[in-house]
Amino acid sequence: MIRVVLADDEPIIIKGLRKLIDWSAFGMEIVGCAYDGAELMEHIETLKPDIVISDISMPHRSGIDIIREVKERGLSVKVIFISAYQEFTYAKDAIAYGAIDYLIKPVVKQQLEKSLHHAASLIDEDLQEEQRRGKLEHLERKHRHEELQAALGQLVDGVPLRNTEERLRLETLLPGPYLNVLLLEAEMDHSTERWGEKESRLIAFAIGNILEEMVTAANRGFVFQKNERHVLIVHHRTETSAGMLAEDIRKQISAILKLEATVAVSGAAAGINRLEEAYAQAEQMLHLKFFAGLGKVLRYTAQAPSGRTDKPLYELRWTALGDLTSTGWPELEAALNGWLQELGHETWGHPQLAISACLSSIVTMIQELAKSGLTLPEETLDKRTLQQRLATSRTFEELGQEFKAMFRAVHEAIHTDGSHRENLVLARIKQHIEEHYAEEITLESMASQAYMNPYYFSTFFKKHTGHNFKSYVTGVRMKHALLLLSRTDLKVYEIAERVGYNNARHFSDMFKKLYGQLPNDYRQEIRK
To answer: What does the alpha-carbon distance between residue 432 and residue 473 come to, in Å, rounded to a whole number?
Structure first.
């Protein structure tokens, strides 16, 4: 509604103006009445009317005094004067100061309506012009903001700014003394139907609004998107403030959107020239969410967690394999946890390497079991299925759970079927040979471990492997000898000792019998 104030020192005139026309039909309402010039000026200041209809000659302050002050102060009120015939020249002076019309008393309804239509059209034009100017100013501010965002994008990519004006503006808007890069990723599991492309875009938009309010509107820095992540460049007066802001942002997103988000925080950068380094630090920490867990604030650090086992993965893997065939699930789970703990250290910061190492170890151990004639679940034999199951893990913890679930299925399959008993015995014998090939291994000692007499054990072993016991042990030893010949500079007698032969000549004779050439000849040929 258009707001109107009436002013005249004669109350009957004001009463007549109220009844002269249907004000609501014009989209107007009378918000106040004044009976002298001083009161009218007070109403203009406090009630902020759009239109004033006033007698030009009033006590205390005349209409000319009023409109002169309105013009000097740049007030947007439209003024219509009413005057007696003899005041016609006086009214003309008021028009010169910006009054939109004057009416001669007694006021005629049609003339007042015409003046009000004119005033309303001027108010509408002013509103449209104000909106146009507002839009232009908004677009100009948006354009300047986007220019600065693009400049920051260049800086985090390591591209120096050639525009001196942009650099100065950024240094003014990011005074520091500490600058940090924050990278934010919403934790949406895209393997579920909940998060389609449309939902993901809406979430990104909603997060952007939260960040704009908490960072840009609060003059704490800039927000933009890069590689489908939200990037924040923020400035602080203390080194710990960036982490506190990141935690506030994470909590706000959780409270408003019911969604977890991971926020990676770089170390403090001294000036905009160091933003490339800070961005790399934040990106490095974001990669570590696979190991640290989702929905957390990850502050920059180059250190891996403590608690290593100091045992090589190879040794831990064979321990787990032994427990798979010989113990209950709790013992096997403990062995697998030890292996996973060491794997976490070996692959820290490299999720794909962790997944690949898990897959490789599973395939190796499954193959060893399959060689023993064990009947395993079909899903454990398909490498593609194994890889797909592991690759869906979003964290190292999830990867470990999936890894252990696979082995539990194998463990249950082995230990619930009585027909596997002989295969379990054979698997343990093979594992013992694989681990102790450098020591003295006899048919009698292995038969004792299998709780069989030597004759029956010999028959049992050949039935299940297709090899007699002695030739099988020789094959394992020679397999390791081949590796040592091709990958080390050890002397032949040293290799013989490492694979279980006290006599180097006997080792060389056995090697030639098996491969058709002496160890040194094999080494020279393989190195050519």
So the answer is: 11
What is the greatest pairwise CA distance in the chain?
A: 143
Residues 291 and 177 both lie in one domain:
yes
51, 119 Cβ separation under 8 angstroms: yes
Closest CA to 471 of 462, 460, 481, 484: 462
* pLDDT tens digits along 88-125: 666 667 777 788 888 888 888 999 999 999 999 998 98
Looking at 157-309, list the stretches that DSSP marks H as alpha helix, in order from N- to C-terminal side: 164-173, 197-211, 241-257, 275-287, 289-292
Q: With H, G, I as helix, E, B as strand and everything else as coil, classify residue 331.
A: helix
- 348 is in which domain, residue-wise? 313-368+375-405
> What CA–CA distance (Å, rounded) separates 33 from 12?
12
Decide: 346 and 357 in contact? Cβ < 8 Å: yes
Which residue is it, tokens 């509103």? 127
Nearest CA to 211 among 240, 239, 182? Answer: 182
* Cβ 325 vs Cβ 428: under 8 Å: yes
Residues (pLDDT < 70) of the chain are: 85-92, 138, 141, 190-195, 302-312, 314-315, 317-327, 368-381, 414-421, 424, 451
Are 66 and 79 spatial neighbours (Cβ–Cβ below 8 Å)? yes
* Region label for 297, one of left (φ > 0), alpha (ψ between -120 and 50) or beta (otherwise): beta
- Residue 269 within a domain: yes
* Chain position carrying tokens 């506190």: 244
- Whether residues 272 and 380 fall in one domain: no
The DSSP-derived string for 5-36 is: EEE-SSHHHHHHHHHHS-GGGGTEEEEEEESS
Q: Which among 405, 314, 408, 422 is positioned nearest to 364, based on CA atoms?
A: 314
The one-letter amino acid at 1: M
Residues 242 and 351 in one domain: no
Whether residues 343 and 392 share a domain: the answer is yes
310-315: long-range contacts (C-beta < 8 A, 24 or more apart)? 311/338, 311/342, 312/342, 313/339, 313/342, 313/343, 313/346, 313/357, 313/361
347: Cβ contacts below 8 Å, ≥ 6 apart: 353, 354, 357
Q: What CATH number is associated with residue 268?
A: 3.30.70.270
